[in-house]
Amino acid sequence: MIEFINICVLGRVTPESVIFSFGTVLLDLLSGKHIPPSHALDMIRGKNILLLMDSHLEGHFSSEEATVVFDLASQCLQYEPRERPNTKDLVTTLAPLQNKPDVPSYVMLGIPKHEEGPPTPQQPLSPMGDACSRMDLTAIHQILVMTHYKDDEGTNELSFQEWTQQMRDMLEARKRGDVAFRDKEFKTAIDCYSQFIDVGTMVSPTVYARRSLCYLLCDQPDAALRDAMQAQCVYPDWSTAFYMQAVALAKLDMQKDAADMLNEAAALEEKRQRGGRGS
């Protein structure tokens, strides 16, 4: 789990952590759902491959090839970095399975390439969800400005020793980023938030969500998606992280994935509201 912590919390990337991340991607692609890395090996171990496969594939795959890929994913997800394969091993294993020409993802999913916005979600939407479903980046910006950092409570516990000059400089970079974000100077906000993130002493899902929106407004949906996914790593049940992923996926013409993410965000939001009412 050290590699997973390095990636999601500390932002440190090593060859071993990249292999670990690749294993999580393989497993998500095969199963059609996001499986927390901490439970991935337990889910694979002793299970029938056919039961693990995405039901939407409806049997249109080779069980032998699926077994090879599941086995490779389990190797990538080994707790000990030295037990994982290297990139050469990955290529050697996967290359023989590539026997069909590359097809764009939107063609595979049957999605019109220029379809506007994700389909209507199944769950009732909050103002944030409604803004994301309409791809209204201005409304999302207003909501993130008003929400400020209230969702960051509890994500960082810092000792007295950590309040160094470096820490003060990092918080000053975030403050400058907040001012630029409020004033809609999005490129400046990206630079300032990047300074905050790169230090790595303190982790903020809100900063990732704000930088994600900045990237969207600067027409960089790939970077926006990465930041939204990082926000989810820091705060796994935060609906805003899922909403931001939905917008980025829609911008990347991955409409079905965007709709699924929008529904998941709405479900998380409803669950949180029920929890609040019950407490």
Note down, in words, how this protein is organized:
The chain has helices at residues 2-10, 15-31, 37-44, 49-52, 63-76, 87-94, 105-108, 127-133, 137-147, 165-182, 186-199, 205-217, 221-234, 239-251, 255-278. The chain has 279 residues and is an all-alpha fold. It has two domains: 2-100, Orthogonal Bundle (Transferase(Phosphotransferase), domain 1); 127-278, Tetratricopeptide repeat domain (Serine Threonine Protein Phosphatase 5, Tetratricopeptide repeat), CATH 1.25.40. The longest helix is centred in the C-terminal third of the chain and has 24 residues, at 255-278. The relative contact order is 0.10. Keywords: ATP-binding, Cell membrane, Kinase, Lipoprotein, Membrane, Myristate, Nucleotide-binding, Serine/threonine-protein kinase, Transferase. It comes from Gossypium laxum.
The chain-level structural class is: mainly alpha
Counting structural domains, the number is: 2
The topology string of helices and strands comes to: HHHHHHHHHHHHHHH
Mean pLDDT: 78
Radius of gyration: 20 Å
Contiguous runs where pLDDT drops below 50 for at least 5 residues: 1-11, 157-162
Can you tell me the CATH class of the largest domain? Mainly Alpha
Overall geometry: globular
CATH architecture of the largest domain: Alpha Horseshoe
Q: In angstroms, what separates the terminal alpha carbons?
A: 32 Å
What can be said about the biggest beta sheet? none
CATH superfamily caption of the largest domain: Tetratricopeptide repeat domain
Number of helices: 15
What is the CATH fold-level name of the largest domain?
Serine Threonine Protein Phosphatase 5, Tetratricopeptide repeat
The helical percent reads: 55-70%
The number of distinct β-strands equals 0
GO molecular function, one term: ATP binding
Family: Belongs to the protein kinase superfamily. Ser/Thr protein kinase family.
InterPro entries: BSK (IPR045845), Kinase-like_dom_sf (IPR011009), TPR-like_helical_dom_sf (IPR011990), TPR_BSK1_C (IPR058209)
Membrane topology: Lipid-anchor
